[in-house]
Amino acid sequence: MTTTPSSAAPVPFPLTFGLDTFGDVTHDEDDRPLSHAQTIRNLVEQGVLAEQVGVEFFGIGEHHTADFPLSASDVVLGAIAARTSRIHLGSAVTVLSSDDPVRVFQRYSTLNAISNGRAEVILGRGSSIDSFPLFGYDLADYEELFEEKASLFAELMKGGPVTWQGKTRAPLSQQDVVPHTEFGPFPVWIGVGGSLQSVMRAIIGGPPLRFAPFSQLFQKALERFGRPALPVGVHAPGHVDVTDEKAREAFWPRYREVIRSVSETRGFAIPTKESFLREAGPQGALYVGSPETVAQKIAANLPALGATRFDLKYGMGGLSHQALMAAIELYGTQVVPRVRELLGEAQGLHSPQPDRSAG
């Protein structure tokens, strides 16, 4: 639960549980990498299963590398939308800085139509910066690009003709942008990774409790500017298996290799087994373990962060499609119900089941 300004009554936000993926290339049972095409087809099956096991949101992050070949996530989300009826679908994230806000709006408004009102979008500046040189953007303009494009996207979400002018794209004058949304604005989140500037735009990501002050800052800023309270969400990597040992054995070597491969360009320290186990422990950033272990960690961190939404970034490059399908099933059928139970016990009541249906 988050709160409104002190003069108003508390506003409860329903607990929401989702799954996010970067479309990591999966391997077959002989540990051979699958093609990009098969990885994408498998991803559609994973999204369909997520709905079947009760997960409420399925997000796909934009990337442009051979390890993460999901450069057109909205197309994949459209395929999932055609085979589902309840689960919300969205980006996790869309790199708005290197895209055109008008085209992002059009793509997700189209997804909203196909899905009968189930589209969401998470906008980010670009923690992974592969899209900047690909589309001809200068990293020196990193902040300005996002600020201006987020401003334009906010105007687009109001509906009606748009008039806007900035430095990063051509101006618009009373421009009608189609397709119009059928059910009003779809949900828009801002993805942040650790800067105060990101939080002032505001879904929390990264090591858990050090982000609590950022969540508090977000709500205080809303109060200061006379805005109603808004929900805060957590996006964190992990893997679920039947036991802690199996989950860690499957995840650890893949995690080490992925971090090693990006360590030079991203400035990451290459993890040791000791550091990995620490991150997988109660105080760390990784949600890796049995359903009970993962559920206990989520239930501890959501209240501490003032958050009511948790999206598990599942999968890691090299894991098999079968392992990911098993993890999705465990998350939906065991982790999520257990978190609801734990938080209900902590509050002395059962958390309300959110209505995520369209309409």
Polypeptide structure, described:
- This protein has 359 residues and is α/β, with parallel strands linked by helices.
- It has one domain: TIM Barrel (Alpha-Beta Barrel).
- It is 42% helix and 14% strand.
- The chain is built from eleven helices and twelve strands.
- The strands form two sheets. Strands 1, 2, 3, 4, 5, 8, 9, 10, 11 and 12 form a ten-stranded parallel sheet that branches.
- A hairpin with a 7-residue loop joins strand 6 and strand 7.
- The longest helix has 27 residues.
- The radius of gyration is 20 Å and the shape is globular.
- The N terminus and C terminus are likely disordered.
What structural class results from the helix and strand content?
alpha/beta
**Strand percentage:** 5-15%
Relative helix content: 40-55%
CATH architecture: Alpha-Beta Barrel
Number of strands: 12
Which ranges are low-confidence, i.e. pLDDT below 50, for 5 or more consecutive residues?
1-11, 196-206, 354-359
Identify the CATH homologous superfamily: Luciferase-like domain
Query: What distance lies between the first and last C-alpha atoms, to the nearest angstrom?
Result: 24 Å
Order of helices and strands: EHEHEEHEHHEEEHEHEHHEHEH
Gross morphology: globular
Number of helices: 11
> How large, in whole angstroms, is the Cα Rg?
20 Å
* CATH uppermost class: Alpha Beta
CATH topology (fold) name: TIM Barrel
Largest sheet: 10 strands, parallel
Number of domains: 1
Rounded mean pLDDT is: 88
